[in-house]
Design a protein that fits this description.
Growth Hormone, Chain: A; 2 domains; globular; MFS transporter; 20 helices; transmembrane helix; MFS_trans_sf; 396 residues; transmembrane; 78% helix; mainly alpha; MFS
Length: 396
């Protein structure tokens, strides 16, 4: 049975798999806990230094080394059993957060600890994603991935909101201790609830060498290269528009509206993953991959006319609805590679996407120094549509 003829999966099907429930819980705890940690640490840093630059650097420190970990360490996802790797990863998160909660460290040491966690974050994510195709065959994989995307977005929003409320009731150190407690719970869940499954591949060479060799193989093959570019470019180029959201809101005379625009983006992404992942049958979902990818950029063109806040929120939500095209692309990517390199493949996809979004947002911010924010957002939409047309073959 092919992906286009398989029966749609149901939530009861995926949540009926015990290991999926554990991985789902680990993902939720990680995203929520890291969101609370990040906001608490940023506030604590600003209180210590009075510097917005230091606070921003601490906020982004966990993302900065993501590309390095993705380039050098991804083979761990296929060489180390999932239970052992995830237990140690969440134990590292607990140890780092607890040390930060104790406080008293100089800021370079704080950054070094955050970088250490960030280096292994893509490996932990790749390990989780590599287990899903085995646990959820057929259309269950698409539904499982859509659940992870929706829950990650929801947990991030909830974690940031909870962090703000906790900071109002507790000190930043107290909030960091709660984030450490969530990491400790994740460590226990990984150790006690995950099965001891053998790794998908045996070590054949050095860690970095094996990772680089696999990356070259994936990027050298036309099929996998096209699917990776299809997973990276439309999302990175359209999400780049978020780099102009704050100046767009400020230019409209309502600086606080940036939060509404970003919330609309999150709401659109949640809705898209629910509709495409749960309600669309596999056949129509496959056929709509290219139109959905183009939807990520098309609404942004209207920002050249500088629409008002309600229209801007609707346009951004419509664009992020289209991000659900990635569910089909990831399904095709999983089918295109053997199981023994699945973890590295999905890790490369994730680390490339993280890097592309960071670069796109930075480029949009730089363009905002020379162009009106609405024009920058419209330009992001135009280059997204151009990329989709160039990638029409892997997106069809």
């Amino acid at each position: 049975m092919t992906a286009s003829t398989a029966a749609p999966a149901r939530y009861r099907d995926v949540f009926g798999v015990p290991e999926f429930r554990t991985l789902f819980s680990l993902q939720t705890l990680q995203v929520a806990g890291d969101s609370v940690r990040t906001i608490a640490l940023s506030v604590q840093t600003y209180e210590r230094t009075g510097s917005s630059a230091w606070a921003a650097l601490v906020f982004a420190a966990g993302m900065i080394p993501y590309v390095v970990g993705g380039a050098l360490l991804l083979s761990l996802a296929d060489r180390v059993p999932a239970r052992r790797l995830l237990t140690r990863f969440h134990l590292l998160r607990f140890a780092v957060t607890a040390v930060l909660a104790v406080g008293g460290l100089p800021l370079p040491a704080v950054l070094a600890l955050l970088v250490a966690v960030g280096l292994f974050a893509p490996v932990g994510g790749a390990t989780v994603q590599a287990r899903l195709p085995s646990l959820l065959p057929g259309d269950g994989y698409v539904l499982g991935r859509s659940l992870f995307t929706m829950t990650s977005a929801g947990a991030q929003i909830a974690g940031q909101a909870a962090g703000g409320l906790l900071l109002a009731a507790l000190s930043p150190a107290g909030t960091l201790w709660l984030a450490a407690a969530s990491a400790a719970l994740a460590t226990a869940l990984a150790r006690l609830r995950l099965p001891d499954v053998p790794p998908a591949a045996r070590a054949s060479s050095g860690l970095a060498g094996e990772t680089w060799r696999t990356n070259r193989l994936l990027l050298g093959r036309r099929t996998t290269r096209g699917l990776l570019l299809a997973a990276w470019l439309p999302i990175s180029l359209s999400v780049a528009a978020e780099g102009a959201v704050v100046p767009y809101a400020a230019g409209s005379g309502r600086p606080g509206a940036a939060g509404l625009l970003l919330s609309a983006a999150a709401a659109g992404m949640l809705a898209g993953n629910f509709v495409v992942g749960r309600l669309l049958p596999p056949g129509p979902r496959e056929r709509l991959t290219l139109p959905l990818a183009m939807l990520t950029g098309a609404p942004l063109l209207a920002f050249a006319a500088e629409p008002g806040l309600p229209a801007a929120c609707a346009l951004i939500a419509a664009g992020t609805f289209g991000l659900a095209y990635e569910l089909t692309v990831q399904r095709r990517l999983v089918d295109a590679v053997p199981e023994e390199i699945r973890g590295r493949t999905l890790g490369l996809s994730g680390s490339g996407l993280m890097t592309g979004q960071a670069a796109g947002i930075g480029a949009a911010g730089a363009l905002g120094e020379f162009l009106p924010a609405g024009h920058v957002m419209a330009l992001c939409g135009a280059v997204t549509l151009a990329a989709c047309l160039c990638l029409a073959r892997p997106l069809r």
